[in-house]
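User: Could you check the structure of this?
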Amino acid sequence: MTENKPAIAAVSLDPADDAPEWTDEMFDVAEFSISGKVIRPATGYLGPNGVVRGRPPQRDVAKRQVTLRLDPDVIERFRADGPGWQGRMNAALRKAAGL
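Assistant: Sure, the predicted structure tokens are below.
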């Protein structure tokens, strides 16, 4: 025979509780659409420090993906400083190579 389980109380979660307050600059770059039809496309995106306009600059020479084995403590040291750790690691390698 099956056992009746107690009902779980419904919890109302408002996704706007954790959402940041919108600024005028955010509204200026946001896409505007009505019923799924885009009236004005987005002109930027929200980056870690606010609104960033356009694409990042293109490089003359594209970076190449490689497979590289590194000691775990080296990787963790670069990751400990947060986002951008791969760029910082690249800069350290360039400095070590004398570039």
